[in-house]
Amino acid sequence: MPFYSIFDPTMIILIPAMIISFWAQTKINSTYNKYNKVRTMNGYTGKEIARMMLDEAGLFDVRIEVINSKLGDHYDPSSKILRLSPEVYSGGSISSTGIAAHEVGHALQHKEKYKPLTIRNSIVPVVNISSSISWVLFFIGLLLGFKGLTMLGIVLFSAVVVFQLITLPVEFDASTRALNILKSRGILYGDETKNAQKVLDAAAMTYVAATLMAVSQLIRLIALSNRDD
User: Fold this and answer.
1) Which are the contacts of 106, defined by CB distance < 8 A and separation ≥ 6?
2) Residues recognised as catalytic
3) Interval 130-174: pLDDT, tens
4) Burial of 138 (C-beta count, 10 Å sphere; 0-12/13-18/19+)
5) Distance CA 204, CA 22 (A)
6) How far apart are alpha carbons 143 and 84 in whole angstroms?
7) What SS3 state is found at 59?
8) Are the C-beta atoms of residues 152 and 141 closer than 8 Å to each other?
9) How many helices (H) and strands (E) does the chain have?
């Protein structure tokens, strides 16, 4: 059966990861929205909490900017800029507190040269190229019967899988750092810390889902390359 047939049985490999990805996205949206409506007792905004945590860590040179993207919050190590979405930047909710602190966690990792983060940052250029051309090379090789080209596509896509696997400890560690600081500094009180953890745990599941999807895609590519025409 040719790989371009109407029904591709290897798509079954992706179904579990697709279900988990859908669940993870639904979970982060619902959890974020729920705790975005719950204000913290101290009333600090995400920007204020981030600035406080950065300054206490001696990261005075890290700037905080607004990025117009919901849940697009991130720390850019190349320019030392912590970018927060409008609701996180200006909000004083459990969600904004947890997310802002999590991004500061990445800044702390960068300062301390946290090994998984260093490795992940170093392979970003390779992964960007690999993710762009791996599928093209794979299917050209499959169409023309060039096994070497097909295998090259698989090897390049493997870099994407490695990137996703390295991302997991980076994200989990950033959340752990964030929650420890929020609790030890008394920024959150009582159940607020537990609720912030729920937000970060939900966000972490999206990375787990992305990793499962990447691994499933790799398995599918291998299955396609080994399938009889």
Assistant:
1) 74, 75, 77, 117, 170, 174
2) 103
3) 998 999 999 999 889 899 999 999 999 999 999 999 999 999 999
4) buried
5) 14
6) 45
7) coil
8) yes
9) 7, 3
